[in-house]
Amino acid sequence: MPKKIVLAYSGGLDTSVILKWLQNKYNCPVVTFTADIGQGDELSPIENKAKNLGVKEVFIENLQEEFVRDYVFPMFRANALYEGTYMLGTAIARPLIAKRQIEIAKTVGADAVAHGATGKGNDQVRFELGYYYNDPKILVIAPWRDWEFESRSDLIKFAQINQIQVPKDKLGEPPFSTDANLLHTSSEGKLLEDPWAEPPEHVYTRTKNLENCSNESETIIIEFKKGDPVSINKKELKPHLLLKKLNDIAGMHGIGRLDLVENRFVGIKSRGVYETPGGTILLQARRAIESLTLDKGESHLKDEIMPKYAETIYNGFWFSSERLAMQKLIDSTQDKVNGHVKLKLFKGNVVILGRKSPNSLYNNSLVSFDEKGDFNQKDAEGFIKINSLRFKI
Q: Is-catalytic flag, 14?
């Protein structure tokens, strides 16, 4: 039996019910921890909600800068996409939350941690692998795998009995569930579970409908140093503020929507609707600056390991030795990824207009059709003959 529990607490229906259930079942103090990683206004009432449920120790911490600097940007150096499209907005947030939750547990003398992830999803794996990496001896409590409730309607009944405030939109079946942070917003479940059904417009909260976007394009210039973006239109910004600015710009142009059916780590296919506005711009811009500054071998090697790197993060292995090894290789290619990328934003599109770098490997005299340069075109004949030998044999 635990003596003290730290709960990852969002203030929503699920974790509020979990909080009361933990108190009833284990009859021990429960500490709540909420990570502010850019999810927005929903944080404001959390402290009062927790205290109204008898919590004496409430932690609400702004981790936005650490989140983008130490998690999002390193991941973006790999140009990581899971199954070719998903930018891993939820997956990249869980390791930071788990790490800080364990640190708080050590601070308050707790011997257990708890989370609100379901037994059908990926987040239970991501949280718990993060817990065990940071404290192999910690007791982990996963209520969705242990309790008697079988549906959210059961949770609502329990909440009403225990005078837990139920959000108005969850008095019946909730329309869909959401997760948000500075990188993205994801929506899953209920009305989105039919992969043929078009998502209603109210699902989207960060990006304008294309029909309502401006009929005028916008041009921006992003500067990169050692693979990371540092400024927008010559204005230098801290990582989290730069991403927030790009989110605002991209959202106005309807950039960053994704409707995806993905393969979860636990073996289930799920349909999710994602908004990653600033990240969509950054991915395009990063590939543009790398096309100018990376050697062919480096560039192709990065593309080869990227699916493995992305899957490693998706599956919750951020702290694993293989992710760290891949990160070292990726980061070793970034010293010369410096320069500027010019982009046009228009009705959901990100268009590369130009790129320049002091470390450019682009050689105009080799490429140009208008001058001979140092490239002897006659050399191509032997090159082709050698490569055609296997076809002739």
A: yes
Q: Which residues contact 3 (CB under 8 A, 6 or more apart)?
A: 28, 110, 111, 112
Q: Which of 111, 177, 264, 291 is catalytic?
A: 177
pTM for this structure? Answer: 0.93
Catalytic site residue 70? Answer: no
User: Does residue 103 sit in the same domain as residue 218?
Assistant: no
**Catalytic-role residue among 77, 94, 100, 286:** 94
186 and 159, same domain (yes or no) = no
pLDDT surpassing 80 at residue 366: no
- Of 122, 139, 174, the one marking the end of a domain is 174
Could you give the CA distance from residue 359 to residue 198 in angstroms, rounded to a whole number?
Answer: 45
94 in catalytic set: yes
Looking at residue 174, its pLDDT comes to 53
Residue 172 has pLDDT above 60, yes or no: no
